[in-house]
Amino acid sequence: MKSGLLLSILAALTGCEGMGTHDGEACLAVPAEQTSCPAASSLSPSDLFVNSSDCSERVMSLKGEGERKQAGQTITEACCYPAEISDGNDRCIVGRPYWEDGVQRQAPLCASGALSTVKHAERAAAWALAGAGEHASVAAFARLSLHLMSLGAPTSLLRAVHQAALEEVGHAEQCWEFARFFGGAEVTAGAFPFQGSFSTHVSLAEVAAAAVREGCLAETLGAHVLSVAAQHAPEAEVRAALLTMADEETRHAVLSFEIVAWALRNGDAEVSARVRAAFAEPWPRVDVAELSLRSNVDATLLAAAAEQGIAEVLTPAAARLLAA
């Protein structure tokens, strides 16, 4: 059974527009001893789940009163209502960091299992969305490995890139475990929305510039702020998970600097120009509100950590790389 509340939050955060609708059934999990159903007018679409097997559908509105029944793939006691349901939209994506044709792509998320409480719904959604970003990183590293192979990169870089991809798989699984813990729903990723055919015809300058933006800047700053969040997270389980992720993201950031340094050593003036141009663009920022929600650490503290990371980590690291 899909958690309507969790899926509705996820869908709202994607900013998807223009989806079609169809008639369907929306259900509300209720205790087995509850024989009557709440009035439809007292419910919000976000309170309900779609009684179908399509994980990308969501409840738009209710069209009548409910009846008691058993519903969902795991047969749950529920009240089910006739409803207007959105058409599944596998192109509906959230977050970052895999880029293709100028668009950031991620897999759609599916959630199954009864929602145990609405108290931590936003936190569960934040963890689920973070998992989608980590999942997309697997695709980014997989593509990077092929690009590096096409450019004759040393096997030490290839090994590190594949190790990073495996660690991102672990990050996604850990995020979705916390989504389940806080929201009571099992979260998984659907088919990744790759578009067109993949090409290894890429220049060293292009790979180096992408490594600057995605790794030297974004991943480095993210790793720094994540480590601060981990140090201050009040819950032991969350703190331990964030510490592991921060350590591994730090290695990924270092790997990005190593890739760019290799490109600069082996490239021409175009590589150097593209790298400098990438550093000259506005630097990325960390979504401290999202991380604050996940870690239960004050957003003001994380915002200060982000500024510290720019001043004390990114700026000197970039200067050192460009001076080499």
Q: What can be said about the biggest beta sheet?
A: 5 strands, antiparallel
What's the SSE pattern?
HEEEEEEEEHHEHHHHH
* Topology, number of strands: 9
User: Would you tell me the structural class of the helices and strands?
Assistant: alpha+beta
Shape: elongated
- Number of individual domains: 2
Number of helices: 8
- Proportion in helices: 40-55%
Distance between the termini: 56 Å
What does the average pLDDT come to?
80
Radius of gyration: 22 Å
In terms of DSSP E residues, the strand content is 5-15%
Poorly predicted sequence stretches spanning 5 or more consecutive residues: 1-19, 88-96
Structural summary, described in words:
- The protein has helices at residues 4-14, 121-150, 155-183, 204-232, 236-266, 269-280, 288-295, 299-323; strands spanning 21-29, 49-50, 59-62, 67-71, 76-86, 98-100, 103-105, 109-112, 186-189.
- The chain is α+β, with helices and mostly antiparallel strands and 324 residues long.
- It has two domains: 1-120 and 127-133 and 183-197, no CATH class; 121-126 and 134-182 and 198-323, no CATH class.
- The model is unreliable at 1-19 and 88-96 (pLDDT under 50).
